[in-house]
Write a structure and sequence with these properties.
Layout: E1 3-14, E2 21-33, H1 42-50, E3 55-64, E4 81-86, E5 91-92, H2 98-101, E6 136-145, E7 157-168, E8 171-182, E9 187-190, E10 193-196, E11 199-200, E12 203-207, H3 221-233, E13 238-240, H4 248-257, E14 260-264, H5 288-302, E15 308-312, H6 321-333, E16 339-340, H7 360-366, H8 370-374, E17 377-380, E18 383-385, H9 412-420, E19 427-430, E20 438-441, E21 448-451, H10 479-487, E22 491-501, E23 509-519, E24 530-538, E25 541-548, E26 564-573, E27 585-593, E28 605-612, H11 629-635, E29 644-647, E30 651-658, E31 661-668, E32 674-679, E33 682-683, H12 700-703
Parallel strand pairs: 12-13, 12-19, 13-14, 14-15, 15-16
Antiparallel strand pairs: 1-2, 2-6, 3-4, 3-7, 5-6, 7-8, 9-10, 10-11, 17-18, 20-21, 22-23, 23-26, 24-25, 24-27, 25-26, 27-28, 29-30, 30-31, 31-32, 32-33
Amino acid sequence: PARLAIRDFAVSTTVPPSGATADFSLDVALAGSIVDAAATDTAAAAKAFSESGLAVRASLHGPFRLGRQQDLEAPLPACSEAWAATLAPPTLAEDVDVARLSAVGRPAPGADDADPHHALLDDDAHGLMSLRGCPARARGGATLEAPALWSAEEPNLYSLVVELVAPGSGGEDVLDVETCLVGLRSVSIEGGLLRVNGAPLTIKGVNRHEHTAEGGKAVSWESMLLDATMLKAYNFNAVRTAHYPNTDAWYEICAAVGLYVVDEANLETHGFSSWGDEGYLSKQPSWRHAYLSRMTRMVRRDKNSPCVIVWSLGNESGYGPNHDAMAAWCRTHDPSRPVQYESCGGGDATDIICPMYPDKKHVEKVGSSAAGQNAKWMFAPTRRFPLGTREQPRPLIPCEFAHAMGNSTGNYADWWELFASLPYAQGGFIWDWADQGLHQTDPKTGKHFWAYGGDFECKQHDAQFCINGLVFPDRTPHPALHEVKHVHRPVDVALLSAEPAAEPAAGKRRSAFRVRISSRYDHLPSLAHLSLRCGLEVGGVEVGEAAPLESGGGGWRAVGARDSCEVDLEVVWDPALAPYRPSEVYLALCFTLSEESAWAAAGHEVAAVQLHIDAAALGEQLASQAPPARAAAALESPAAAPLKCSDLADAIEVSGSGAEGAFSVVVCKTTGTLRSLAINGESLLAAGSAALNLWRAPTDNDNGATPGMPAVTSDRKEWLPPVVSSA
C-alpha cells in the first residue's frame, strides 16, 4: 500500500561542554502514494500504512577529512561505520487526510495558506516548506562516544546514508537512498558570546559575492575552491554570503576546508531609501509571505550544512513586522542556530549585534553591555533602529566593516585591538573579498582590462563601488590582503627577555631569548601541525638561526587553544655577516604547516612575527666590529667646524661648514617648516617649496564620502594649508 520515497531529512547535533559525546538525531520525511484505493478514511489509511513493513535505516561513516583539491563529487574515502540503526517505524503525520494525499502525497494548493509559519520541509504551491504536512516521518538518533567534532579549525566530516526499505518477493527491497556530508557540532550563545562546541569564536570574516572576471555571477567549481583555499591561506575562518544564498556546492567546500558561514536570505530593499523609507516593504502585510518564502527556502536547503552557523534575515531592508515573522519562524523550526539582522539594530529580531560600518564609539557602546545594545540607533534619516528589550548581552560581530576599496585597511590592526578590549566583541566581516570587474579587451589596442562602472556606456552606475575587494578579479592579492593575514595570524609571539650568552667558538656569538608563544585558535588542542623557524636579523640581514630549547610536556607544540607558554631560544650568530652599525635588530619567527592540509601545501606560512631587539642585548660584538674602508676613511678625516645656532625673531638658523663649504639652514618657529637651505650663500630652495603639508592623496573611500571626512573630488588643485598644533 505504501509507495514512498525519501522527501527530505534533517540532522541535529548537541555537544555537551566536555565534548566527550555528541547527541545525534535524525528526522526523515517520506512522500509518495501511501494508501490503497480502498482506504477511504484516515483510520484506514493509517492501518494500511502500519502494515506495509516500511523501514528507514540510517548510518554514519567516518570520521574523515578531505584532502587538498579533492573533488567532493568523487568517491569519498573509505572509512569505518561509526553508527547504524533502524529508525522508529515511520508514522503518518497527524494532520494529514486521505483526500489530500491519495494523489501525489503533497498538500493541496492553498492548504497551508492559513499558517505559513508551520512550513519546513517541502514546497507547497507558494514555494514554502511543510513539515507537519509531510505524509510520513521516521525519527531516530543516538549518543555517540568520542566523536570527531566539526569546527573551522578541525573540519571532521561523516557521511550520512539514509535508506528506505520494504519487504519484497526476494527478501528486502531498497526503495530509495539519500546521503550527505555531516559535521557533528553545536552552535550556541552563552555568556554573551557566539560559541561552537561550547568554545567562544573569533570571527575573522569577509563578505563574498559570487563573481568571476570571466563568468560574472556564474561561478565554477574551480573558482569556488580557489576562493575557499585562499581564504584559509590568508587566515580567514568565516564568510557571509552577501547578500543571497550561494550555489549549494559552496557549502560543501566550506564544510570540507573549514569555513563558518553566515547564510543570508536573498532580501534587500535598499533602493527604497531614496523614497524616504528603506523598510517600506518590510512593514507591508501583503509582502509577508514573500519575505517568509526567501527565508524558508534557504533554511530548507542548507539546514544540514555544518558550516552554516548563523541565519541572516537579509541586508539593508529597513525593519518591520515581516522581519519579526522571519525570525520567529527560524527560531521555531531551527532552534539550533542563532538569527542575525543588521537593520534592526539591537531589536529583538537579531540574536547578534551586527552593525554595518560602525565608528569606534559605537563599537565601544554596543560591545560593553546589554544596555548599550538595546539603545535606539540612527545611522541615517531613513534607517532608524528600535529599542531592544534583551536583558542579557549579545555577541558583537559587525556584518560589514573595514571597507576594502582602493588604498584601505591600513588601520585594520587597530580594529582588532578594539575588539580585544571589549567583553562581547568577537571580530567581524570585512567588505569584501573580490573586485567585481569583468574581463574585457580594448578593441583599439587589444589590451586586457577589467571593466566596471561606466565602462559599458551606461549612464547610471556605482563607479568603483563594485571594486572594493581584497583581491583583483583574477584573485591576485591586493597589498592589503597581506596586512589582513598578519592581523588574523592564529599564533602570536611576545618578547620577554634578551641577553648575551657565552661564546660558542671563535668568531661566533651566542644570544639567549625568552619569548611567549600564544595560540589564538579557538578549538585546536595543540600546535602540533606547525613547524617553527627562528632567525636573528641585523640591519635586514639574517646573521644566525635560533633553535627552541625544548622542555618537558611537548614544548610550544603542546599549547592548546587560547593558551600560551614561555619558550627559551638560543641563537648562534656571526657578527661578520652584519652590516656596519645596523639601525635595527629583529628576532624573526615563522610558523609553517608541517603537513599538507585541505587548503594549502606543507610549508605554507601561517604566521610570521618580527620582535624588535635592543642591540645592546647582543653585547659589544657589533660595536667592536671594524668599519668598512670607506666609513673608516670618513671617520679619520679632519673634524668639521662646530655648528652655530642663532635664535632669530621668528626662526632658528643653524650654520656651519663642511666638505662642500659653508652652509646654513633656517627653520620657521611657527610652522616648523624649512624656510631656507643655502651652501656658500647660494639658496637651494625655491620660495615656499619646503612648506609642511600634512594632507595625503585622497583614497577611494575618501571619495565615497566617508563619515567624518568631506568628500574629495579630483578637481582639488591645492594642498591643505600647513598647520602645526601646540598640543
